[in-house]
Amino acid sequence: MPLPTVMFYFGLVHLTLDLLRALGYQAPFRISSTPKGYVMPTALYVLIEDVVAVDGGGGQVYRRAIRDRYLSSPYFRQMLFEMNCFWGGGSVISAAVITALVFTTPRDVAYTVCF
């Protein structure tokens, strides 16, 4: 059950953060480059920003560029919202199917499904 647990966790986090963003909640603390008190970005935006800026070597230049793009483009925000829902929702649905298979099949099949 390690994989479905991680899938549930990340899927629910992504969907919850997007729901809070859609309801207009403000960031209670700094979230990546989004200052405290601003409307929260999608979880996918934060993930992309941090991975490319830190691991990809984009640095502060990339953080400013993607932040400008995010704030100025409603199409970009809509695309990130849709991708976030697709990945988060797909993760939760896949985890639910795997969990159902694990608990409704014989032990040997359950081990096969999980690994």
**Which runs of at least 5 residues are low in confidence (pLDDT < 50)?**
none
> Cα-atom Rg, whole angstroms?
17 Å
Q: What is the arithmetic mean of pLDDT?
A: 89
Number of strands: 0
First and last CA, distance:
9 Å
Q: What global shape is seen? A: elongated
Most strands sheet: none
By secondary-structure content and strand pairing, the structural class works out as mainly alpha
Q: Strand content of the residues, in percent?
A: under 5%
Helix percentage: over 70%
Total count of helical runs of at least 4 residues: 5
Order of helices and strands: HHHHH
Descriptive keywords:
115 residues; mainly alpha
Question: Can you describe this structure in just a few lines?
Answer:
This protein is an all-alpha fold and 115 residues long.
Overview of this structure, please?
The longest helix is centred in the C-terminal third of the chain and has 31 residues, at 74-104. The protein is mostly helical. Helix 2 (43-55) runs antiparallel to helix 3 (59-72). It has helices spanning 2-22, 43-55, 59-72, 74-104, 107-114. The protein is 76% helix and 0% strand.
Topology, element by element:
Layout: H1 2-22, H2 43-55, H3 59-72, H4 74-104, H5 107-114
Helix pairs in contact: 1-4, 2-3, 4-5
